[in-house]
Design a protein that fits this description.
binds FE2/S2 (inorganic) cluster; binds fe (iii) ion; Rieske Iron-sulfur Protein; globular; alpha+beta; 9-stranded antiparallel beta sheet; 2 domains; 15 helices; Naphthalene 1,2-dioxygenase Alpha Subunit, Chain A, domain 1
Length: about 450
């Protein structure tokens, strides 16, 4: 272990006390360890079943550095393979999406069917003889895939606990976002992708545990009349700490501010909510204005009510899931899916899409606010003082908000430890504690948390 890594135990101790050493954002050694001990063991969001509705439909995705061919085979089953030919390893399919009954490698022409079987070899028996067993050269499947509410996840560790265990209490909140209507969500368009010069933890932590930044970073929304002037406006509601590093903020309206129930979603959907959710989920959902959070390590979501910019524009809800794919310690590729209830009226779907594009699409106002700030965090974390090997400088960052000051409530109807404010660093502290423990190989999938 290099000098930086031997300091990880110190990180575990510090983060419990609300302090995070700044070097964790830009360290190449830490990044390498994250690849080996976190990303190779975690469940990763690959896509939604609505992206591959027909037999032969495929999309190409990544689990960090592993290219994935995600498809619906000719029997209708969803499968995921390493997108790499078994002959010399070239990437088999370079298209973003499409429909095929087979995939022919551009290098020497080996052909694989949608079951991953090697079904065609150029010059076949003439060059390999009839004794070569083609079954041994099938595409390599992603060790585990599993769907929940149409959301397909993959895991590179064949021995990892299943998706339900991994998600734990987060499933209860995913029910509200993705499982509330009879036919669930659908992805519209293709996921947007763009590159940001930041560390994956900066964005995951921002969505997971940082509603506090909203009033300042996104002050333009206040000026446009989309957000209230009260700087506490994103604090109302509950921050919920879940097991395995996950967390969600359920933000409600400021006292005295009248907001429509169910995030303003069309009334025609309400009977479906009542059919698909429990009384406890309905109560939480009916009062919600924004849901924002992170599934450890790098899947986040935001489901706010937003407009397209004008002061008199109605606020329209959308669901946006996004993966922060690490490219190196100081760079990520953002993958962003716009989703909407399949059963919503078409005009609402259009308004919802416009709301997403204006706010959290790649050129959205809030997205640009965040991107600029996240870049600056890493820009300021690469230097000698931030790494501070000799502890000459006070190089720890402040994650103290609410520590020992804010206590959990005991009447929260859902899973997790819920605190009565969203201006709180409880999720961030839990995120970084889990992160550091996984790097130290101490992490186990823990029993569900209840307040
Ligand atoms: Fe694919 Fe040779 S690398 S056929
Ligand atoms: Fe933001």
């Amino acid at each position: 272990m290099s000098g930086e890594l031997s300091r990880l135990e110190d990180v575990v101790d510090k983060i419990k006390h609300g302090l995070l050493p700044q070097w964790v954002f830009a360290s190449q050694d830490v990044y390498q360890l994250e690849m080996e001990r976190i990303f190779s063991k975690s469940w990763h969001f690959l896509g939604h079943e609505s992206e591959i509705p027909n037999k032969g439909d495929f999309v190409t995705r990544w689990i960090v550095n592993d290219p994935v061919l995600l498809l619906r085979d000719m029997q209708g089953e969803i499968r995921a393979f390493l997108n790499s030919c078994t002959h010399r390893g070239t990437m088999l399919c370079v298209e973003d999406c499409g429909n095929r009954q087979s995939f022919t490698c551009p290098y020497h022409g080996w052909t694989f069917n949608t079951n991953g079987e090697l079904v065609g070899i150029v010059a076949g028996n003439k060059v390999y003889g009839s004794e070569m067993d083609r079954r041994e050269w099938a595409l390599r499947p992603i060790p585990q895939i599993q769907s929940i509410h149409g959301m397909i996840f993959g895991c590179l560790d064949p021995n990892a606990p299943n998706l339900e265990v991994y998600l734990g209490g987060l499933k209860w909140y995913l029910d509200i976002m993705a499982g509330r209507t009879d036919n669930g969500l659908e992805v519209r368009g293709v996921p947007h992708r763009w590159i940001v010069n930041t560390n994956w933890k900066v964005s995951a932590d921002n969505f997971g545990g940082d509603p506090y930044h909203t009033a300042m970073t996104h002050h333009s929304t206040v000026e446009l009349g989309i957000s209230p002037r009260d700087p506490m406006f994103a604090s109302y509601g509950h921050q919920v700490v879940l097991e395995n590093g996950h967390g969600i903020n359920i933000i409600t309206a400021a006292p005295g501010l009248k907001m429509p129930p169910y995030q303003g979603l069309p009334k025609v959907l309400w009977p479906e909510f009542e059919r698909n959710l429990t009384a406890e989920q309905l109560k939480v959902f009916s009062e919600t204005v924004v849901m924002v959070g992170t599934c450890f390590p790098n899947l986040s979501w935001v489901s706010p009510m937003h407009g397209t910019g004008g002061p008199n524009e109605p606020l329209t809800n959308f669901v946006n899931f996004r993966v922060w794919r690490p490219l190196n310690p100081c760079q990520i590729e953002v993958w962003s899916w716009f989703m909407i209830d399949k059963d919503a009226p078409e005009d609402f779907k259009e308004a919802s899409y416009r709301s997403y594009i204006a706010s959290f699409g790649p050129a959205g106002t809030l997205e640009q606010d965040d991107t600029e700030i996240w870049t600056r965090v890493v820009d300021a974390s690469r230097g000698f003082m931030a790494f501070d090997k000799d502890i000459q400088f006070n190089n720890v960052l402040n994650y103290l908000m609410g520590l020992d000051r804010v206590q959990p409530v005991n009447d929260w109807p859902g899973p997790g430890v819920a605190y009565p404010t969203c201006y709180l660093d409880a999720i961030s502290r839990a995120f970084y504690t889990h992160w550091a423990e996984m790097l130290l190989e101490d992490a186990i999938v823990k029993a569900p948390i209840r307040a």
